[in-house]
C-alpha cells in the first residue's frame, strides 16, 4: 500500500513539476523535439539513400555473355542451363544479334542512321542478371570458363564505383546516425540536469527531512518521461507531416500551374541541357498519341553534374514503354513495380483533364499507382530516347521506399493498397 502511495505521489509531483516550472519545461520539450526532428530527418535521408542503392543496383547488375557463332539450338540451350546453375544469377535471357543491333540503334537516337547498311558486327548473346551487383566479378570469372562462351562484358568501372559509393554511404550514414543519437542523448541529459539543478533547494529540504534517494528520484523520472513523451510526439508528427501531403501538394501544384505541358523535377536535380524543355514539347507535338512521356536520366554525385555513374532506364525496360497502353500495363504487372524514371516525367494538360489528378489515398507512393491507373485506362506512355535530367545521386528525388519505421509502415500500406487496388484485380490479364 505504501509502495502504491509513493508511486502515485511521484506521478502527481512529476506532472505538477512540469506546470510549476513552465519556462524550463517548455525549453526542455523544445530541446527534445528539435533533437529528435534533426535525428529523424538525417535518418530518413540516410535510409532513403540506402534504399535507393538497394533498388537501383538491379539497373547495373547485368552481364553480356557473347556466344560462339554458328551454335545449334541444343548447344545454346545447354549453355543457358549452365548459366542458370551458377550461384548468384537471377535470370538469363537470350538475345540474337539482330535484336542487339536494333537496341543499339535505339540507344543512338538521331545518330542511328550511321548504322544503316553496316554489316552486323555483334554476336548472339545471353543477358545475365545478377541478384547482387557485388558478385559481378566472381560470376563473370565463372562464366568465362564455360564452353562456347566467346566473351564476357560488363561495366566494370561503373560497378566498382557503385559498390564503393554504396559502401561509403552506408558506413557514413551509420556513423552519422550514431553520432546524432549521442548528441541527442547529451542534449536531453543536460536538459534533465538543468531541471534537477533548478530544484536543488527543494531536493535539499526533502533530504533534510529524511526523504530517500528513490523518493526524490521518482518525480524527476516521471517528469522526464512526460517531457520526453511530449517532445517525441511533437517530433513524430512533424516528421510524418513532411511526408503525409506529398501527393496533395503535387495535385495543388498541378491545379495552380498554367500551360499545355507539366514537367516534374526535384529541386536539386537539373535539366540535362538548355534544350531539354523544348525537346519535351517537340516530342509531345510530334507524337500526339502519347499523353505522358518519360526519358532517360543520368546519375551524378556531389557537385559535378557532368560526371555520370549510370543512366536509366536500361534497354530491356525501354522496350516495354512504347507501344499499346495495355501491353505497358501488363509489363508493370509482370515486374510488380515501376521501371519508368520519374524525374523529367511530362504530362499533357489534356491528360490531367482526361484521367484526373493523383489518387490522394496514397501518402508516399505516387508513381507506381499513377502509371498503373493511366496505362490501364488507355493512356499511352512515350519514351524520349535522350537524357532529360541530371539526377543527383543522394538528392531529394531519391525514391523514398526505405526510411524510418514510421515511413516504412506508410510505404508498406501504400504498396499494399496498390496491390489490392491496382494490380491483383488485373493479374488475370497476364494469362491472355
Would you spell out the secondary-structure blueprint of this structure?
Elements: H1 2-20, H2 22-56, E1 62-67, H3 73-84, E2 89-95, H4 97-108, E3 125-130, H5 136-144, E4 149-153, H6 156-198, H7 200-208, H8 213-244, H9 246-256, E5 261-263, E6 270-271, H10 276-286, E7 290-301, E8 304-312, H11 315-321, H12 325-335, E9 346-348, H13 349-355, H14 367-376, E10 380-392, H15 405-423
Parallel strand pairs: 7-10
Antiparallel strand pairs: 1-3, 1-4, 2-3, 5-9, 6-10, 7-8, 7-9
Helix pairs in contact: 1-8, 2-6, 2-8, 12-14
Structural write-up:
It contains 15 helices and ten strands. Strands 5, 6, 7, 8, 9 and 10 form a six-stranded mixed β-sheet that branches. Strands 2-3-1-4 form a four-stranded antiparallel β-sheet. Helix content is 57%, strand content 15%. Helix 1 (2-20) packs across helix 8, helix 2 packs across helix 8 (213-244) and helix 12 (325-335) runs antiparallel to helix 14. The radius of gyration is 29 Å and the shape is elongated. The termini are far apart. The longest helix is centred in the middle third of the chain and has 43 residues, at 156-198. The chain has helices at residues 2-20, 22-56, 73-84, 97-108, 136-144, 156-198, 200-208, 213-244, 246-256, 276-286, 315-321, 325-335, 349-355, 367-376, 405-423, and strands at 62-67, 89-95, 125-130, 149-153, 261-263, 270-271, 290-301, 304-312, 346-348, 380-392. With 432 residues, it is of the alpha+beta class.
Amino acid at each position: 500500500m505504501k509502495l502504491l502511495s509513493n508511486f502515485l505521489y511521484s506521478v502527481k509531483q512529476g506532472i505538477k513539476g512540469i506546470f510549476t516550472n513552465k519556462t524550463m519545461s517548455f525549453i526542455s520539450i523544445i530541446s527534445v523535439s528539435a533533437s529528435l526532428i534533426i535525428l529523424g530527418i538525417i535518418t530518413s535521408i540516410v535510409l532513403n539513400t540506402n534504399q535507393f542503392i538497394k533498388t537501383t543496383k538491379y539497373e547495373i547488375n547485368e552481364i553480356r555473355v557473347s556466344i560462339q557463332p554458328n551454335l545449334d539450338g541444343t548447344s545454346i540451350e545447354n549453355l543457358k542451363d549452365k548459366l542458370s546453375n551458377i550461384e548468384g544469377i537471377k535470370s538469363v535471357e537470350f538475345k540474337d544479334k539482330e535484336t542487339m543491333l536494333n537496341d543499339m540503334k535505339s540507344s543512338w537516337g538521331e545518330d542511328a542512321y550511321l548504322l544503316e547498311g553496316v554489316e552486323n558486327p555483334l554476336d548472339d548473346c545471353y543477358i545475365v542478371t545478377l541478384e547482387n551487383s557485388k558478385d559481378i566479378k566472381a560470376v563473370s570469372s565463372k562464366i568465362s570458363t564455360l564452353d562456347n562462351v566467346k566473351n564476357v562484358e560488363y561495366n566494370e568501372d561503373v560497378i566498382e564505383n557503385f559498390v564503393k559509393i554504396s559502401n561509403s554511404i552506408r558506413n557514413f550514414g551509420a556513423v552519422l546516425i550514431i553520432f546524432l543519437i549521442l548528441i541527442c542523448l547529451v542534449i536531453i541529459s543536460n536538459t534533465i540536469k538543468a531541471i534537477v539543478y533548478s530544484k536543488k533547494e527543494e531536493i535539499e529540504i526533502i533530504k533534510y527531512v529524511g526523504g530517500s534517494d528513490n523518493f526524490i528520484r521518482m518525480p524527476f523520472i516521471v517528469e522526464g518521461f512526460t517531457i520526453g513523451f511530449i517532445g517525441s510526439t511533437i517530433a513524430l508528427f512533424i516528421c510524418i507531416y513532411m511526408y503525409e501531403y506529398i501527393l496533395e501538394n503535387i495535385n495543388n501544384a498541378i491545379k495552380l500551374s498554367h500551360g499545355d505541358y507539366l514537367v516534374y523535377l526535384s529541386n536539386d536535380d537539373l535539366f540535362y541541357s538548355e534544350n531539354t524543355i523544348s525537346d519535351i514539347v517537340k516530342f509531345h507535338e510530334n507524337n500526339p498519341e502519347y499523353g505522358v512521356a518519360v526519358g532517360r536520366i543520368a546519375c551524378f554525385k556531389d557537385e559535378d553534374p557532368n560526371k555520370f555513374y549510370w543512366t536509366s532506364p536500361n534497354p530491356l525496360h525501354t522496350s516495354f514503354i512504347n507501344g499499346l497502353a495495355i501491353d505497358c500495363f501488363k509489363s508493370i504487372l509482370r515486374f510488380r513495380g515501376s521501371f519508368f524514371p520519374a524525374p523529367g516525367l511530362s504530362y499533357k494538360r489534356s491528360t490531367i483533364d482526361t484521367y484526373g489528378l493523383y489518387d490522394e489515398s496514397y501518402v508516399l507512393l505516387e508513381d507506381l499507382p499513377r502509371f498503373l491507373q493511366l496505362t490501364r485506362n488507355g493512356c499511352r506512355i512515350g519514351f524520349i530516347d535522350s537524357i532529360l535530367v541530371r539526377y543527383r545521386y543522394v538528392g531529394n528525388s531519391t525514391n523514398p521506399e526505405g526510411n524510418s519505421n514510421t515511413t516504412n509502415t506508410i510505404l508498406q500500406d501504400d504498396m499494399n493498397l496498390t496491390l489490392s487496388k491496382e494490380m491483383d484485380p488485373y493479374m488475370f490479364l497476364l494469362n491472355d
